[in-house]
Amino acid sequence: MTKSRLSSVKLIECPRDAMQGLSPFIPTEVKTSYLQQLLSVGFDTLDFGSFVSPKAIPQMADTTQVLEGLDLSATRTKLLAIIANSRGAADAAQHKQIDYLGYPFSISETFQIRNTNATIQESLLRVNDILEIADRSNKEVVIYISMGFGNPYGDPWNVDIVLKWVHQLREMGVKIFSLSDTIGVSSPDNISYLFESLIPSLPDIEFGAHLHTTPTTWQEKIQAAFESGCRRFDGALKGYGGCPMAREELTGNMPMEKMVGYFSPLGSIPDIHLDRLSDSLDMVPSVFPHG
Known about the structure:
alpha/beta, TIM Barrel, 9-stranded mixed beta sheet, 18% strand
């Protein structure tokens, strides 16, 4: 494996995913200060907030105010905002600071309705609208294939279903996909099988891994994805967060500091400032309840 391939890893830090399911409201100024620190670390992208109904995700009601408080003059990190419909996309698109619009597209009909109040077919229409909005506003769209590794609802799941939706969305113009293990059911075997089925056959598409995990299974999942060709990885410091629409007990996000520890010896993330990462970790207890 060449060094050029190793150095292409992108790390996407997801404080939005870490915060969104928490009931105690994190003050806007605390969020802003934390995000500002994360912007100094050297992550490729920061999944910083969402433009969704505050009734659905009250923790993210202040995303616009947080964005206005950020200084982006000295960072290379790009900003990604999650949206759930064309209205949210239009709201996010008004902000020049935002580079990516992220939309959760579930291949589980039950979860798609639960998460975005839309069927899969309705979500296809939304994706089309979102792509048009993104094109007009010079944004890129990231589609999260929610329940990409299975679901707890009894809806059909297999690799062919994943491939079907990826191919259909690609034909619509989507260029970046993140396969999402929404409830932590992925295994090294199905991670490898999915990425090895997708990446070689669609070399023009960027595939990422948004893997939720338990404290003991993070490394085997990251290794399986990396060795299968994945070079885009989502995570959150200390593994905080998960999807509040998925189930009562949240499975944690992939711990970002552990991924940095995994990739650093490989020379694959040369732009990460370890001292600033350490400073960010020091802030976690003051940001998250019971941190």
